[in-house]
Amino acid sequence: MVVVAGCVRLIPPPATPVAVTVPMLTTPAPPAPGTAALLGLSGGPSVASLKLGASDARGALAAFRSSCAKLLNRTDNSGLTRQADWTAPCNAAATWPAAQAPQFFETWFETARLGDGKAFVTGYYEPEIAGVRSRQPGFDVPVYGVPADLVRAKPGDAVPNDNGTQPLGRYDETGAFVPYFDRAAIDGGALANKGLEIGWAADPVELFFLQVQGSGRLKAPDGTIIRIGYAGQNGLGYTGIGSVMRAQGLIGSAPGQYSGSMQGIMQYIREHPEDGKALMRQNQSYVFFRLIDGDGPYGALGVPVRGGDSVAADPSFVPLGAPVFLALDRTEAGGLWIAQDTGGAIKGPNRFDSFWGAGDAARTTAGGMSGRGDAWLLLPKGTVKRLTAQ
User: Fold this and answer.
1) What SS3 state is found at 89?
2) For residue range 110-159, what is the model confidence (pLDDT) as tens digits?
3) Strand pairing partners for 219?
4) Cα-trace Rg, the chain
5) Are 27 and 363 within 8 A, CB to CB?
6) 23-124+298-388 — its CATH code?
7) Domain boundaries, the chain
8) For residue 56, what is the enclosing H or E element?
9) Is the pTM of this model over 0.90?
10) What's the CATH class of domain 127-292?
């Protein structure tokens, strides 16, 4: 994942969802099939009336094409589409010329509004932090792979999760099943000297936010890039530290308060190192990584996500792999996207997390992204009639 889960706008305005997770930061409970249909779905304007931009449509077509292998071999947990619905669009996408990308979506798709269609969109990115594969001076913060003793409880050894799965944890020296080490214990050395290090970072604060994003890149002094992706999590609950700061009166516009953006939260941690360390440890969740080969971070759909083309969505309401058109008050996040990822905080209909790629520009855009407006799902033609006739 870029597991995704995961937004960098950690502190939205009051009374809005808290966007804190990257795709693949957590493993969400399997959604109940058909959830989306229960909200009500209505047909919308023609795709042609959306006036898709040529560049926007080209990127979306490439992202859609890369999703097709998964679309044709998975169950849509939203209940909106069937595998067979995607056969004709995917076959056409395989050879459709990029220069005619807008016509592809006009030919094969129709729009649908889910519920009231009112969208809330945040942003995430692929962090790049200073890091190396083998420990060296100045790179002393371990990047851990999944520990072998992180396991699910055997039936009868622990209370099952709400979704029926067994909880994650470990068996202690007495054979009792106990919760896994939390962030404070791991930071304190609970996993040291066990051969779990897949890399070493220079800055614990940057690594913390890379964990929030769920995947990223380590950049060595010689320019070597090591891509790492989500591999697992310690089974403990995620706490958005921005929410903690807001509750403590640290977020706001008054003198001495900080911005609720990722940049503002990092500023507070830098300026108050001991309090900042304690703040980060309130998030007991700890993410483990794996080394990744390839040209981009992978989303929950199992294909690389693309900056400016991929969004995370709630698969209970949006078919993963489907196009989504956003008309927002943030023009840079409007237009056509492909739902290729999920995130622990990306829950509910018309809730999206836009992916912006890697680098400083992506970090800045994602860190301040908070857009509102309307969302249209693009579904294979005939889908709306079938669903509304039921």
Assistant:
1) helix
2) 999 999 999 999 999 888 999 999 999 999 999 999 999 999 999 999 99
3) 130, 225
4) 21
5) no
6) 2.40.40.10
7) 23-124+298-388, 127-292
8) helix 54-71
9) no
10) mainly beta
